[in-house]
Amino acid sequence: MKRKDFLRSASFLAAGSLLLPELVRAAARTKVKDIGIQLYTVRKEMLADPAGTLQQLAKIGFKELESARSDKGNYYGLKPKEIRKICQDHGMRLRSGHVHVDNEWKKSIEEAAETGQEYIISSVLPSKGQTIEHYQESAENFNKLGEECKKAGLHFGYHNHDSEFETVKGQVLYDVLLKHTDPALVTMEMDLGWVVAAGHDPFGYFSKHPGRFPLWHLKDMDKTRKQSTEFGKGQVEIKRLLQHAKQAGMKHFFLEQEEYAHTAFESIQIDYDYLRKLDY
Asked: Which end of the chain has fewer CB atoms at under 10 Å, N or C?
């Protein structure tokens, strides 16, 4: 081999050795798929025109949905079979729903099973005060509810806000729930925005309780105002959270935004585009 050819080959090999690690890293990066949304994000729109709103969400690209109790019931006035069919027609799946544990609990379980959803979620504790005893009692009740849901082919779960992260007698109340609920019966749906707004570390929970958080509410938060905002404008580390999805046990996540700088649909389009451009 001539010297100039040798030098040219050597330079190509050197360049390749520099590029290879980056190519490997690029290949290992993951794109966000199956983006879900909590329908409370578009609550006014769902109450006004549920079928039309679901169609708009499908056009944006959402694939998974979580419903929320409204003045018109658990599905914004739609019957369980209606929302199931609309979702199927638009290539979406209703995965979960927030309900109230009240005198319509049995009906809520029946309706959830009829929609084909997998999870039924309580997002509030009874108003009995912020005490360790109350949280222990709630955890025991959650285990019983979990048994009921299991018989119906559903997973029962609990969704936090910020009040669960208050400390009482040296114990974080959310930790009391984790300690006294059976992971086989109670799914923890972690609202990551509220955890951060409460001044706590979701990564610490992922490390201490790996696999315990199959469902997420993914939102960005302005911690100063304690309000949700468009992705990239708050203090929640969206990309880093997704990098820890496997450790957390995350199976499904639902974008949620409760306050908007724009209209609801303009804001969720910003959020959706942010996630679609993200790789982690």
From this structure: N
- Give residue limits of the domains in the chain: 1-29, 31-277
Name the one residue in this structure whose structure tokens are 């315990």.
212
Per-residue pLDDT reduced to its tens digit, 150-180 = 999 999 999 999 999 999 999 999 999 999 9
- How far is the C-alpha of 265 from the C-alpha of 239, rounded, in Å? 22
User: For residue 63, what is the DSSP state?
Assistant: -
User: Tokens standing for 140?
Assistant: 């025991």
Are 268 and 59 within 8 A, CB to CB? Answer: no
Pairwise CA distance, residues 42 & 59, whole Å: 15
Element (H, E) at 238: helix 238-243
Run of H or E residues at 145:
helix 132-151
Residues 101 and 145 sit within 8 Å (Cβ to Cβ): yes
Residue type, 202: P
Indicate the pTM of the whole model: 0.89
Confidence of residue 126 (pLDDT cuts 50, 70, 90): confident
d(CA 265, CA 263): 5
pLDDT of residue 18: 67
Residue 159's H or E segment, with its range, is strand 155-159
Candidates 2.170.130.30, 3.20.20.10, 3.20.20.150, 3.40.120.10; CATH matching 31-277: 3.20.20.150
Tell which residue, 244, 233, 222, has the closest CA to residue 274: 233
Report phi then psi at 116, rounded to 5: 90, 5
Q: How confident is the model at residue 6 (pLDDT cuts 50, 70, 90)?
A: low
What integer is the mean pLDDT of 264-271?
97
